[in-house]
Amino acid sequence: MIFSITLVHHCFITATTLSTHHPKVITRTKRQDHLTMGLELNPCEIEKSIKMNNILPSQSPFGILERVTSVLADDNLQSNSNANASNEMRIGISSKKQIAINGLIILSNFLQVGLQVSSCGSAIIDFYTFKFTSMFSTLAGGLEFSRRLGWEATPGKANWMGAGFSLTQSAMVLVSGRLGAIYGHNRALMAGGAIIVIFSLANAFTSTYHAFIAMRAMTGVGGGILMPNAVASLMIATPPGLARNATLAVFAASPPIGALLGALFAGVFLQETAEWKWLFIIIAALELIVLIVLFVVLPSEEPVDKDGTIDFIGILSGVSGLVLFSFAWIQGPAIGWDTPYAIAVLALSGVSLVVFVVWESKYAPEPIMPVRIFAAPTFTALIIVVLLTYMSVGIALWYMVAWQQLIRDWTVLNIAIGWIPYGVGASFAVTLAALLIPRLAAQYLLAIGIVSSMISLLLLGTMPEQQTYWAQTFPGILIGSICADFVYVAAQIIASNSVGVKEQGIAGSLIGTLNLYGNSLGLGFAGTIETQVARHTESVSLPYRAAFFFGAGLTLVALVLNAAFVRVPRDSGCHGEQTYVEIQVKPTGLGANGQSTQPDAATRSSLHLARLTMQDLHGMSQTNSGDSFAPPQAVQERGSLRTPEKGKSQFIGSSSGNSFVNTVRRAFINAYSRLSMHA
Questions:
Q1: Is residue 479 within 8 Å of 452, Cβ to Cβ?
Q2: Whole-model pTM?
Q3: 28-31 and 34-39 as β-strands: parallel, antiparallel, unpaired?
Q4: Mind listing the GO molecular function terms for this protein (predicted)?
């Protein structure tokens, strides 16, 4: 029952937040023989596009409008023009198949989350909320798996159980979206799922600690490929509106629910009388069934950027640098920092990162991480703050599990049940964050998240070895649940306002990567501290306390940096109520079977929406005056502009003066510049 309540609550809040704060993508509806496509961009981006393309106010917008309508009307998508497509607008799939695909993608995400949380990987990509609930569930069985595989079950030397999955997953998340754009998001989705199935099944037949960790790391690669491309596939298959919001809400809710259930399953299969290998076999089989059905129902697709190039040097140097740096810190406590091998790996990671920076800044034709992004106001400070905070959260979760299991003799099942309040608290934190977004500056939301993690770490670090769960463990868990949602939401807001339009996707991916990478890196640092303290004391709890206090110190540094350097940059007055500008197009061409043609995938992907504010429109009408106009006959016949206001469609083609001219020009200039490539 608690999982059902959490899922429903999270879906409602996420759908509300998406509809209020998230931009829509291309709107496609069918109205008789007309195709309505919405164009939506941020007002600031429109202004930048006007300047970049040297569009003068004197230029007529109707050439732009005709160009858009012509491309939409004349492009032929014969692959999707079949006998079953005559009664509805589609992108190669029917509405029933679309629902099936969405459900299968969500189930696939649910299963991979449940698998990794049960097998002790690390935090899971949750694009909206509940990031670290899933990480806890991942860590729940780590020490018990280590013991059964014959490895020393101390947190500092078994930290690969908590870091292996998240390390490789974070590395792949940063680049897999680009791979999906070039080779197809559906193909990438299937590839990621296949990797998860293969190496999860392999996990069932491992008998040593190192083989187990290697399989978990490879499974993390599949998770890193699957997650961003699953979101992209959902976005492509589902039109904007309530259906998309609900779909994304359920998708966002699937990781935490799968995580909590996965932890419970781990507790069941890690009972002394159970066989843990069956956990991997069962979930791998379920994932395989989902992938087979997806293979059957997924439509053929044309990649968004099939002619694009991959920055292999950037990927190799960047990913290897990040992985080796974290690898050295995670492995250091187990092998000792006096081992030349550990120092050599750390030095090699530094060389790789230097190569990455030089290549990306000077030589890469299409860099995966433009170095100029770090010159954006407040962005570098934000990255450091987010990394330190996520490191602290990973430390809190891993060492709480160690404390409960190794000092208080809790079973894995007891630990999973004890952390249910974390998931419930994170769910309600979504509500609170959504309410505070329009009322509180993002840096203050970030500060609240940091402070909640600090309080949680201090509560856990000062508790006696034996104490009732309700005294300090429960409040520490509940307060700590606030951190993930507040930090993630605030960081995305600050990042999107700090960088340019073209870098916003990269900035968002980087924040998501830090979510995972910080968890694994934090365990490496804390493991070093724990093992060093353990050498000089006979106390069982003191090394764990040292790790908790180190995590609290990280939050203190993050809080100071946030107060001193992190701000939400002003966006040059681009505020106001946002609305859509849509163009209604009547197709004029006929396909091979006599049906009206639809725009091809390249055209659809090239269309950007132009987001205008009512305040902006009113300002133009007050500052611009001119002759009334009559749109050209071709435009009257083939398309019309309209802007929905307060849920109603309202044609603005009858307005007078240059306000309409500027509206059309501003709304379609970006689409025009993009479409010129397909001329």
A1: yes
A2: 0.68
A3: antiparallel
A4: transmembrane transporter activity
